[in-house]
Structure formats: structure tokens, C-alpha cells
Design a protein that fits this description.
It comes from Enterococcus raffinosus. The protein is mostly beta strands. It has 5 domains: 2-33, no CATH class; 39-108, Immunoglobulin-like; 113-182, Immunoglobulin-like (Sandwich); 187-256, Immunoglobulins (Immunoglobulin-like, Sandwich), CATH 2.60.40.10; 262-346, Putative peptidoglycan bound protein (lpxtg motif) (Ubiquitin-like (UB roll)). The chain has one helix spanning 367-397; strands at residues 2-4, 14-22, 25-33, 39-42, 45-48, 59-63, 76-78, 88-96, 99-108, 113-116, 119-122, 133-137, 150-152, 162-170, 173-182, 187-190, 193-196, 207-211, 224-226, 236-244, 247-256, 262-271, 276-286, 290-292, 301-305, 311-313, 318-326, 340-341, 345-346. The strands form 9 sheets. It has a 5-stranded mixed sheet with strand order 25-27-22-23-29, with no helix packed on it. A 4-stranded mixed sheet has the order 5-9-8-7, with no helix packed on it. The chain has a 4-stranded mixed sheet with strand order 11-15-14-13, with no helix packed on it. The chain is rod-shaped. It starts with a strand and ends with a helix.
């Protein structure tokens, strides 16, 4: 038999004729060369350190030479290089019926992060979990909004002092912030007081001390004060409020009616040795009012000193002293002046002294005092003259 198959090319799809001849008889056969449809489709991918991964994740599809689908389980896979615990790029080979495809698996470092911070607040302060949140990023390092985080702040109780934990979670990453709720130490201490109509007064007079929420001292200038109700010109009880950081204290200022204080002036009439020559005169009046005293005429005595405080203003227990000397027979001096003041006059003793000291030595004698001092010297001179006269006369007679 003679065969002619020279036309057949199995490397190319097509229909080819093959002739068979024997003893003059020829037959023709057709050979159809089909295109092989076997194929494996895979794709590259990126994952993050620690992510779950399997070779099937990168497999798309496969068909046999006839174009019929092939199940993944019928594919031969080599993924031994892949290590999801380390960043890097790894190759995975997929083989079926002589066809091989390669997929690249890139394992990236995970950039997921949640940053928070601890904080301290005070009992009663407003607080929300977002206050302690700083930032968050996904595995690609892209920002993540707070609303996308899972937060557990159920333990926080801002009405009680204590330290509480708040957890913030995103994509498997958890961070914990501590919230310390402190007891508030803020305090303002003031006191009530009483003053009199017309007295000087300022709000600081009733302020004792203040401390902030940490217990540190606070200056008065940092206190908010309302003293608008106080009127020192009228009697009454007025409230003054002192406020700092939400804490208010109230002081009461009582304005009383001012009662007039009485003063006395005791006028004394004495000699140079402090002996009483006449009844004391006592003047009474309101402190601050004017008074005036006068010397008395005292028979047989002459005034030698008028005190500097003979005039002045009433205050408690003033003593005014007029000092006299014995005239020793000199002419009588009459003085009808009277002490005067706004109050009553009475005899009184035992008042505290406010004396004007008098120096007795070195005083010049008054006119009458000069006469009484010179007279003895004249008498002595006369006696000596007479004695000398008789002495001289006796001498001459001899």
C-alpha cells in the first residue's frame, strides 16, 4: 500500500488529506488538526503579614485541550515558597496537561495602627471616647476615621473617682487608653462680717482662701465676685457671692447703725505741787465735737499756766490742768470766765490723766513775786548801813 500524508502538519490546526493506494485502488482520509485549548489562568496578588492565604486564592480558571473546564483539584500547584509571616514577593506555579502558569504573591508589612492616649478628667466633667483617640491607619497606611473603629468604653464612670480602661479596635489591632477621673478639690472659703454705716469695705475683706480642682491656691483676683448689693450707707444685711470654676460661696455683710461715742474732759485747778484748789469741772460730749475750757478765779491764787489742750475735740477721758500759785498778799485778780462745751458739766474725779507737764524751775517770777523777793534784801542793807554808822562814830570819839 502506498500512503501519501505529506500534506498533514500537526503543528497547525487544519484539515489535511491522506491518500492510501493499493493495486490501483485509492482511498482518501481527512485528518483534522485541532487547536489545543488547554489553559491556566492565574493572577498576582498582595496580602499582609499574618493574613490567611491559600493557592486557590490566585487561581482563576483552567480548561483542557478541548476547552472544557478543569477543576482546581486537578491542577498541580507548587506554593512551597510562600511565607505569609514575612514581607516579600513569592512565586506560585500552577500546572495542567503540560501548561504552567505562575502567580506572584506579595506579602506586605501590615501598617494597621491605632494610636490613643491616657488622660485625666475630674468628677462630673464631660467626656467621650473620641477625646482619647489620636489616629488610626489601615494595613496600607491610609487614615481611618474614628467612626470605623470598634470602641468599648462601658467601664468609664465620670461620676466617680477612679482609673478606667477604654479599648479601641481596628482590623485586629487593639489599643487601650486609661481615663483617670479625679475628685474635684475646688473650694472657695469666705466669712460673714459686720461693719457700721459709712465704714470702708471691699469684697476682699470677707475672702479667706480658694483652691483649684488640683488643690493649688487661687489668687483673689481670679475669683468672680458679685458685691453689687452691698450698700454701706444703709443698715441691712447684704450677700456677696464669690465664684471660681463652678464653685460659689456666699458671705453676708451686715451694716449696722453707728452709735455715737461719748467723750469726757475733766478740768482740774491745782497749785504747783498738784494740790487741788477748786472742784473739777467735767464736760461731756460726742467724740469729735469741739470743746473749750476756761480758767477759774480762785481767791488768793494767781494763774501761772494755761494748758495747751484747753481747747480741742472730745475723746475718751481728756484731763485739762490749770496751775496756780499763791499770790501772798498781792491784789486780788477776778476772772469770771467759765468752761464751756457741748455736753454737761459735773464734779468728777478718778479720770485717766492726759497731763501737760510743767517745768517749775527756770520760771520767771510774776510782778508780785518780784516784790516779795526784793524786800528782805532792802532790810538787810538798812541794818548793815546803821551798824557801819555806829562803828565809825565810836572810832572817832576815841
Amino acid at each position: 500500500m502506498t500512503v501519501d500524508s505529506t500534506e498533514v502538519d500537526t503543528s497547525k490546526a487544519g484539515t489535511y488529506e491522506v491518500t492510501y493506494t493499493y493495486d490501483g485502488i485509492t482511498s482518501v482520509a481527512k485528518v483534522t488538526v485541532k487547536a489545543r485549548q488547554t489553559a491556566l489562568k492565574v493572577h498576582d496578588s498582595s496580602i499582609y503579614v499574618g493574613d490567611a492565604w491559600k493557592a486557590e486564592d490566585n487561581f482563576d480558571s483552567a480548561v483542557d485541550k478541548d476547552g472544557k473546564p478543569v477543576a482546581f483539584k486537578d491542577i498541580t500547584v507548587d506554593s512551597t515558597e510562600v511565607d505569609t509571616s514575612k514581607a516579600g514577593t513569592y512565586e506560585v506555579t500552577y500546572t495542567y496537561d503540560g501548561v504552567t502558569s505562575v502567580a506572584k504573591v506579595t506579602v506586605k508589612a501590615r501598617q494597621t495602627a491605632v494610636k490613643v492616649h491616657d488622660s485625666s478628667i475630674y468628677v462630673g466633667d464631660a467626656w467621650k471616647a473620641e477625646d482619647n483617640f489620636d489616629s488610626a491607619t489601615n494595613k496600607d497606611g491610609e487614615p481611618v476615621a474614628f467612626k470605623d473603629l470598634t470602641v468599648d468604653d462601658t467601664k468609664v464612670d465620670t461620676s466617680k473617682a477612679g482609673t478606667y480602661e477604654v479599648t479601641y479596635m481596628y482590623d485586629g489591632v487593639t489599643s487601650v487608653a486609661k481615663v483617670t477621673v479625679k475628685a474635684i478639690k475646688t473650694a472657695v472659703k469666705v466669712h460673714d462680717s459686720s461693719i457700721y454705716v459709712g465704714d470702708a469695705w471691699k469684697a476682699e475683706d470677707n475672702f479667706d482662701s480658694a483652691v483649684d480642682k488640683d488643690g493649688n491656691p487661687v489668687d483673689f483676683k481670679d475669683i468672680t465676685v458679685d458685691s453689687t448689693k452691698v450698700e454701706t450707707s444703709k443698715t441691712g444685711t447684704y450677700e456677696v457671692t464669690y465664684t471660681y470654676d463652678g464653685v460659689t460661696s456666699v458671705a453676708k455683710v451686715t451694716v449696722k447703725e453707728r452709735k455715737a461715742s461719748k467723750g469726757t474732759v475733766t478740768v482740774k485747778y491745782i497749785d504747783e505741787d498738784g494740790n487741788k484748789l477748786s472742784e473739777d469741772v467735767v464736760l461731756s460730749g460726742i467724740e469729735g465735737e469741739e470743746y473749750e475750757t476756761k480758767a477759774k478765779h480762785i481767791s488768793g491764787y494767781e494763774l501761772i499756766h494755761e494748758p495747751a489742750n484747753k481747747k480741742g475735740k472730745f475723746k475718751k477721758n481728756i484731763v485739762v490742768e490749770y496751775i496756780y500759785t499763791n499770790k501772798k498778799g498781792s491784789a486780788t485778780v477776778v476772772n469770771n470766765n467759765q468752761a464751756k462745751g457741748t455736753g454737761s458739766v459735773s464734779s468728777n474725779t478718778g479720770i485717766l490723766h492726759e497731763k501737760n507737764n510743767i517745768k517749775k524751775s527756770g520760771q520767771l517770777p510774776k510782778t508780785n513775786e518780784q516784790v516779795s523777793v526784793v524786800a528782805p534784801f532792802i532790810g538787810i542793807l538798812v541794818i548793815l548801813s546803821v551798824a557801819y554808822f555806829y562803828f565809825r562814830k565810836g572810832k572817832l570819839n576815841k
